[in-house]
Amino acid sequence: MSTPKYKRVILKLSGEALAGERGYGIDANVIQSLAKQIKEVVELGVEVAVVVGGGNIWRGIQGSSRGIDRATADYMGMLATVMNSLALQDALESIDVQTRVQTAIEMRQVAEPYIRRRAIRHLEKGRVVIFAGGNGNPFFSTDTTSALRAAEIEAEVILMAKNNVDGVYTADPKKEPTAKKYDTLTYLEILNKGLKVMDSTASSLCMDNDIPLIVFNISEEGNIRRVLLGEQIGTLVKGSV
Ligand code: UDP
How many A from CA of 220 to the centre of ligand 1? Predict the structure, then answer.
C-alpha cells in the first residue's frame, strides 16, 4: 500500500513556498512543515533532492528593473537561494533527517560544492541533497536548475510545489473563476499556449530529456507523500507526447 511510485525525485521549492502568508522572507513554521513532509517521503525510501528558489528574498529581474546590472542581480538571486537552502537544511536536521547542501557557486565554509557523483552517493545513502545557488549562471532560474539536475542525477520526476494552487489551469484561477485545471499536459502545450508553469528554457530542457513534471499544491500537508504514492493529484506534464 505504501510502495512509492518513484525511487529518485527532484522537489522544486520556490522561495514563495518558504515565505508563508507574508509573501517574503522565511516563515519558520512553514519551513518546519515542509521539512516534516520531506521526512515522510524519505522514510518511504524515496531519494529526495531539493532545488530551492530565492524569489522570497531576491529576484534578478526585479533588481535589474531598479537599475542593477542583470548579471549582478542574478548572482544576488543565487545567493538568496543559498540562504533558503541553509534554512531548509536546518529544519530538516532538527527533525533528524540527514542532509547535504551543495552549491553551484563554491562557498566551502558554508556547504559542499556541487559534484554530481557525490550528490548521487548522498542520495543512495538516504541523505536529502539540497541544491543551492541555482546552476551557478546568471540568466537562468531555479526551474532550469531543476530540469538540469534532474537530468544529471537521473531523477524520474520533478515535483513542482505550488502554494495554494493544485495544478496547472487554463488561466490564473485566482483571477479567472472559470479557469479549468489540466490533469495532464505536454511541454509542447505549455510552450505553445504560453502557460506559466515554468520558464521556456526549463520546459525545453525537460521536453528534450523526457523528464516528467508533477505540479501540485504543497500547502496541503501530506501532498508530497500522496504524489509519490501515485495518487492522481495536481497536473502531470509528460516528457513526450
Ligand atoms: N538565478 C540565476 N541562475 C540560476 C538560478 C537562479 O541567476 O541558475 C537567480 C535569478 O536572479 C532568480 C533568482 O536567482 O530570479 C531566484 O531564483 P528563482 O527566481 O528561480 O526562485 P523562485 O522563483 O523559485 O523562488
Answer: 25
Per run of 10 residues, the mean pLDDT along the chain (length 241 residues) is: 91 94 92 96 97 95 90 97 98 98 98 98 98 98 98 98 92 89 96 93 96 95 95 90 59
Beta bridge partners of 236: 184, 214
| Residue 102 main-chain phi, psi, to 5 deg | -120, 130
Question: What's the pTM value of the predicted model, to 2 decimals?
Answer: 0.96
C-alpha cell at 158: 520533478
55 Cβ inside 6 Å of ligand 1: yes
Q: Is the CB of 114 under 6 A from ligand 1?
A: no
User: How far, in Å, from the CA of 157 to the mean position of ligand 1?
Assistant: 20
**What number of other Cβ atoms are within 10 A of residue 95's Cβ?**
11
